[in-house]
């Protein structure tokens, strides 16, 4: 009636009065009528207010019918109210802020019933969203502190903790220039529930503040808490090296590799070797490779050692040739005279040492393979033998020494088809195996010699065919008849 008499304000007041007093279950049709009214006679603010009210009812009904622990609905509800604050033409800012706070307070009151971290992850982000809103939108910093403190009191730190909460709280205090308070927060986090992430946050803060003595103490605490954590050792040594404390860095690496239960020790060894290589302590790096080879003996150690020898020889050679001089070096000293002879000797020495390392590595792996009983470990060692020979062949190809390359190619394994008996049925199954020439030579010296002659004749024939010789002798028309007695269960594949 009011709208028919063009009393739009009075009609709007009637609608709002009815919507505030009627229960949600009976106001669905009324809201639809109110929405149509605003679309016909209202302005933009009125339409938005109607849509916001309708979405509020939807969220409230969803929370009522599903579960108050549905944190995704609470997130969407809070974002709805925050968007209403940014366009609060229809409402006062104070009232919009109160609505947002009410939603967040209701949301964080829904504490997960179980003390398992997976149930708390989404819940904690409600607290973080609440604190971020108070800091950015309302700038009520005392209330921000209250939110963080209430959140930290609620978390069962004996079972688990959330480093993100401690980190954001500390960074908030840093933005407020309360450095002592930020340190106290992170110190409490480490003391109450130590975690690698908490140590890293604290260390990053002190590094940015250039408080290196505090960083040392933090690394010591970190390693007391978890001496098996490799990144802590590496970063601690990196800190000392950055401060030009080379001996302290070296001592830290030594303590790290001495840890019996160190997790992933290979990365610490690699960092230690890289450190000595960058310091151009070649002999120290070789000693480390020697110790690592004795401790591990893995094929990666030998191949890395060979690469190191090659790169070291090249680096020393470049130095003699004056190729590694720093263009920005403003030293008044005259540049070193080029010594091509010494450079070539350094390069050849690097090649020699690399070959010696690969030869020694191959013999070491082969010896361990021979002493290992049948099983997965023995198969893995055989694969390592093949890998180190592949690496060796690649190295000789890069060097360009055809004689050395032929030697390595003669050591390469050949695929062979074999049969083995199954334990349960006694039947035989076919499988492919790698046969190394040195193993065959040791097991069947006579057969190995005949096979060598056959391969040599085949290579000679291929060479003659490639040279396109027009007249062939009778000896080349028919191969020599060589009788080779192969075991019935081994069928070699000659490529």
From TrEMBL:
Chain intervals with Acidic residues compositional bias: 323-343
Keywords recorded for this protein, A-Z: mRNA processing, mRNA splicing, Nucleus, Repeat, Spliceosome
Subcellular locations according to the entry: Nucleus
GO biological process: spliceosomal complex assembly
UniProt keyword annotation of Cytoplasm present: no
Domain Pre-mRNA-splicing factor Syf1-like N-terminal HAT-repeats: from-to ranges: 57-227
GO cellular component terms given for this protein: post-mRNA release spliceosomal complex; precatalytic spliceosome; Prp19 complex; U2-type catalytic step 2 spliceosome
KW Ligase (keyword) present: no
Region described as Disordered: spans on this chain: 319-345, 459-495
Main localization, broad class: nucleus
Compositionally biased intervals (Polar residues): 462-488
A Pfam family that the UniProt record links to this protein: HAT_Syf1_CNRKL1_N
Family to which this protein belongs: Belongs to the crooked-neck family.
PANTHER family: CROOKED NECK-LIKE PROTEIN 1, PRE-MRNA SPLICING FACTOR
Protein name: Pre-mRNA-splicing factor Syf1-like N-terminal HAT-repeats domain-containing protein
Organism of this sequence: Puccinia striiformis f. sp. tritici PST-78
Lineage, broadest ranks: Eukaryota, Fungi, Dikarya, Basidiomycota, Pucciniomycotina
